[in-house]
Specification:
Blueprint (H helix, E strand, L loop, with lengths): L2 E7 L7 H4 L2 H6 L2 E7 L1 H4 L16 E5 L3 H9 L6 E4 L8 H7 L4 E3 L11 H5 L9 H11 L12 E5 L4 H5 L9 E5 L2 H12 L11 E4 L7 H5 L6 H19 L3 E5 L16 E4 L2 H7 L2 E4 L5 H7 L3 E5 L1 H10 L2 H8 L4 E2 L6 H12 L3 H8 L15 H18 L1
Parallel strand pairs: 1-2, 1-4, 2-3, 4-5, 6-7, 8-9, 8-11, 9-10, 11-12, 12-13
Helix pairs in contact: 9-12, 9-13
């Protein structure tokens, strides 16, 4: 009987997740894949009325509308099923861990890079964050020793890199019996794959400026947290800056749309610019220069070793400063964000462009240490699917030895 690997997603799972989470390798190793969409149960902003097409009989899709539907599914799983949760340990999702802890289960950490918090950044917080149940409950949960949380701990955890592993493990339920495997980040793997394959998109010009879109005014996570950004002002400022770069560099703009973006509902955005979705790694690998916000996509830029500029606006600074992380992010990547709300002279923009093209090899190598394993690490050349398989086999071996 084939073993089942269950992937729990809090957002609508798009087809590209099959590659992102390396379903192909798991299927080759004899696993059946269950893709579980929990968006409707978790958040109305994440729900999408469509079904992804994975085009593989070994991948089954499930969409839960209620918590009871999800509970029944978990309780009916066979003993050989292994559950990988992409959820973080937060108070809102604690009920999910309560359900899956009654079954043999595992976690996959969020292997995208998480900015560390620094004392310097904390001291620069301009004001206390708005108090809410969300912040208060999570502040307690994240500081609570995991052994005191009354839910079964994970059989396995996959997290990234070799530095500061303990801090990363604080995002999940674990104890001394939990199997821990390390990996390169998913973004790093996707970028290296795009570079090594030499894939290019036929419609791309030889030279272009790439803007990595964050869908910020309409992003479901931001709406859920009440982080309101004026859409009209945001898109005016971003588009104006991009058109200025287009004029100064003499090459067109390509927009790498965020995976959760739906610009068919917002045709007024990025007029005259080509918008491409689900091809961020390929777009970065062929770009002349990349423009981004302080986002996880910076890991892809670093892996491709591309010149890049970080931009922000007054509105974004207000939102980020409320969380107290803006200075931490800038310090971590050792790059200052350009505030495009300011009235910048062409000479200032040209200076920023020149600085981007002068980023050296040493900078990239130092930054990439956060996203990749050392070359001599046993998992360095393994895909995510291979590492998942390794973790599950270790769990099975330990259970047999007990």
């Amino acid at each position: 009987m084939e073993k089942i690997v269950v992937f729990l997603f809090e957002v609508y799972p798009v087809e590209t997740y099959a590659k992102r989470y390396d379903f192909h390798t798991l299927i080759e190793n004899g696993y059946q894949i269950h893709v579980c969409n929990m968006a409707s149960v978790i958040s109305e902003w994440h729900a999408v009325d469509s079904q992804p097409t994975f085009n593989n009989e070994k991948i089954e899709y499930f969409c839960f509308k209620t918590k009871d539907d999800f509970k029944k599914y978990i309780y009916n799983l066979g003993a050989d099923a292994f559950i990988w949760s992409t959820f973080q340990l937060t108070a809102e999702y604690y009920w999910v861990f309560n359900v899956i802890s009654r079954h043999r289960y595992g976690f996959i950490c969020n292997v995208d890079y998480v900015f560390p918090r620094t004392n310097a950044g904390r001291k620069k917080k301009r004001h206390l964050p708005t108090l809410s149940w969300h912040r208060y409950s999570n502040a307690i949960l994240l500081r609570m020793p995991k052994k005191y949380i009354p839910v079964r701990k994970a059989d396995a955890v996959i997290t990234y890199g070799i530095d500061d592993v303990q801090r990363k493990l604080n995002n999940v339920l674990y104890d001394k019996h939990t199997v821990v495997e390390l990996t390169n980040t998913i973004d790093y793997c996707e970028s290296i794959d795009a570079l090594m394959s030499g894939r290019t998109l036929s419609f791309l010009p030889d030279r272009y400026i790439l803007f990595i879109d964050e869908f910020l005014p309409f992003h479901p996570d931001a709406i859920k947290l009440g982080q309101i950004i004026d859409a009209e002002r945001y898109y005016f400022e971003v588009e104006s800056f991009l058109h200025r770069l287009e004029r100064l560099l003499g090459c067109p703009i390509i927009v790498a749309a965020h995976p959760k973006a739906d610009y068919s509902k917002h045709p007024e955005c990025y007029k005259g610019m080509k918008i491409v979705q689900f091809k961020t790694a390929e777009l970065i690998s062929n770009a002349t220069i990349v423009v981004t916000h302080l986002s996880l996509a910076i890991g892809m830029i670093l892996a491709s070793k591309k010149p890049y500029m970080v931009i922000t606006t007054n509105d974004l600074n207000d939102v980020i400063d409320e969380e107290g992380v803006f200075e931490d992010q800038e310090a971590d990547i050792q790059r200052k964000a350009i505030n495009i709300s300011h009235n910048l002279a062409d000479s200032s923009v040209e200076k920023y462009v020149d600085e981007a093209f002068k980023i050296g090899e040493t900078y990239y190598e130092e930054q990439l240490r956060k996203y990749k394993l050392p070359d001599n690490h046993p998992n360095a050349l393994m895909s995510l699917g291979q590492i998942m398989d390794k973790a599950m086999r270790r769990v099975e071996d330990e259970e047999k030895s007990v």
